[in-house]
Structures are given as C-alpha cells and as structure tokens.
Amino acid sequence: MTSETSKTVPNTQQEWLSRGKQVFMNTYASYPIVIKQGKGARVEDVNGKSYLDFVSGIAVNSLGHRDSGYVAAITEQLNQFSHCSNLYLHQPGIKLAEALIRNGEFDRAFFCNSGTEAIEAAIKLSRKYAKKHKGDSCTTILTMSNSFHGRTYGALSATAQTKYHQGYHPLVPDFQTVTFNDIDSVKSINPDSVAAVIIEPIQGEGGIHVVDQNFLEQLREYCTSKNIVLIFDEIQCGVGRTGDFFAHQHFGVVPDLIALAKGLGGGFPIGALLAREQFAAAFEPGDHGSTFGGNALACAAALECVTRIESPAFLESVKKRSERLRRSLAKLQSEGHGIVAIRGLGLMVGVELDVPGKPIIQSCIDQGMLIVGAGDKVLRLLPPLTVSDDEIDQAVEILSKVLANRSVQAAKP
Ligand code: PLP
Description:
Layout: H1 3-6, H2 13-23, E1 35-39, E2 42-45, E3 50-53, H3 56-59, H4 68-78, H5 91-102, E4 108-112, H6 115-134, E5 140-144, H7 153-158, E6 175-178, H8 183-187, E7 194-199, E8 202-203, E9 209-210, H9 213-226, E10 229-233, E11 257-260, E12 271-275, H10 277-280, H11 296-309, H12 312-334, E13 339-345, E14 348-353, H13 357-366, E15 369-370, E16 372-373, E17 378-381, H14 389-404, H15 406-411
Parallel strand pairs: 3-15, 5-6, 5-7, 7-10, 10-11
Antiparallel strand pairs: 1-2, 2-3, 4-12, 8-9, 11-12, 13-14, 14-17, 16-17
The structure holds pyridoxal-5'-phosphate.
Pyridoxal-5'-phosphate binds at residues 58, 114-116, 119, 148-150, 200, 204-205, 233, 235-236, 261.
C-alpha cells in the first residue's frame, strides 16, 4: 500500500490545509487557499472557487497560467532531455543568453535558479572585479534604504530592511546602507572602499517606489568615475513588467550588472546575471557555479517567455494595459476610495491606502481576486503581462467595492 492510500485522502480545502500545516516549516503566512489549476489570469482552488490572479506568483507568471506556447516549449524540451549539468552546453541555454543579450547592452550571462542566487553572483563578481582593479581592501557594497534583494546570506546582507535580518546575525560584512534617491549619501562613503552599488530601479517589497531619474543618472556617472560596479536588481521589475524589456530602459541608464529572475521563467525557476564584458571578465572557470543553474528545461521555459515578451507589440500591449489600469485607479482615487498614492511602472503597480492593506487583501480574496501587499498600507497589483482589458476592469471593480467598505474591513482583526 502506498503512503497516499494508507492515509485518509483529503478532498476538501480544509483537509488539505490541515495536512499542509502538519508538514511545512512555519516560514510563510500563507492564505488558506490550495490552488489546483490556472488558465490565463485566473486560478482555481481545490474547492472550485475561481480567482482573478493579480499576483501572478509575485510577478512570475508573465505569460499567465497554462499558456499553450509555454506548455509546448517545456514539453518539447522535456521530450529531448531536461538536465545535463554545466559540464556541457545546450541549445536552449545558448539561445536564451543570446536573446537576453540582444535586448540590452550586456555581453555575457550566468544562469542560476532564483533571484537571491542572481544577487549572490552579482556580489561575488563585483568583489572579484574590485579586488583586481581597486585592491584587496575594496570590498564595501552600498545598498539602498528600504531595499530587498533576497534571503540567502549575501542577498540578505544587501537587503537594507532590517526586519529581514532579525535572528540571523552576524551577516556578511562590508554592506553599508545609503539613502535611496540621495546622491550625497552615496558620495559620503569613501569611494576607494566601495566595490559596488546595488539598487532596484523600482523597489518592490519596499512598497513600489520608482527611483528618481536624476538620481539614477548621477549614480551612473559617479560609479563610472570611481570605477564602482553598478548593479541593478531587476528581479521583480525586469523582463517586460514595466512595458520596456528591462526596467532601466525607461530611464535610459545602463548598469554594469543586472540581476533577473521571477518573470524570466514564467513559472519555471530560473535566475540570471548579465554583465558587460569588462566586468564579466572577472570570473574564471571554477569561480562560481550551480548544478541546476540554467538547466535545459528552465532555459526552454525562459526562452519562450523572452522571445514572446521582447516583441514590440507585446511590450506595447503591456504599456496600454498599464495605462488602462492606472486610469481606472486614478478615477477611484478621485472618487475618494482612501487611495493615498498610485505608484509604479507598467504592470507593477502599488496602491498606497489610508488603512492597513491586510484586511483589504482578505476582502479581495473573498470577492475572488488575488492581490499581494508590500509593507503595511500598500497593495501590489502584478497581473500576468497577458492580462486582458476585461480582466483589468473586473479587478478594478472588485477593488472599488472592497475599498468602498474599507472602514468596515479596517475594523476587522
Ligand atoms: N530582489 C528583488 C527585487 C525581489 O523582489 C526578490 C523577491 O521578491 C528577490 C530579489 C529575491 O528573489 P527570490 O525570491 O527568487 O530569491
């Protein structure tokens, strides 16, 4: 008898939830929903309730759920082979690197499995570069206030929001926080000690804050003049999410290294570090690696996403849908729905409220829509990039109803 048949097989959501509660570590404050399937911008739970998905796995399912081209691309690769290690090359990997390189001003790619790993690669590469070009004592990495870069030790140390550090000290040394959007704060640190600066062009977990154009230009100029590696974390905002292929293309400011993940794989785990030649050259064989990094299956999934998203028509449609969403949200704001601010770019939209976001998110879920918070009072709207006009209208209608009742929601525990 298998272990599955020897136990009572749960058939309701409640049973699945209690089964999950017994076996998972207590790391996630998950909502009491067990997802069964998805299609496009909708998911369904095991009880058959349907939700409009304005989370997309936190900016991951860029092509929506069960996209036919995406399923076909992965299936085709699965029928060839899934993994061969980095002892050998494979076609999906080469094609994916070429596709990412042709969309920006980078020369080389390193593939890994997640956002935090892309940041680890960026930290290691920039420290190696700095040691070679500025000396052994040049190890400091500047990170922006309110930033989030991941959960492994290097990325966690680069994350300035100290709530993520609790219980994990000592962190990796030589990370220093400077003030987001304040060039004097950056310049106040001795540049001879600074190996790299890392910044999210749009802070995601920090509450959807878009970097100032002027600051980013000044930062680029400063880093170039002091031979400091400029790293953009576009893990959440990259690969079409803003309506440009890379978020920095909106600002016309190019980094030396860029970290990608999330929407790159459309639901298949993959991360990437892209670098300009001069910086990529600091890595030599054996310096860094990953067993699974850039495996054929992950690259085939990401290649389908990238080749679809890079088309000008696709990116234009993201911009159009963003305008529609923002116009409707601005209307809600003008009607007095307690919206303090609407921030973001493309389909990465933050709605700051005058009440805590948690009860609002719960009410949206009750009404059949998934959204996610960022900080205390900010709602994040991150639909699939393929979301339709109709689905945007449905989402705004749900939000409008829920926000109209926000004083009732806010009173709930
Ligand atoms: N950087 C940013 C900007 C992110 O939003 C995230 C995840 O939310 C990460 C890094 C970490 O990525 P991952 O969760 O894939 O490790």
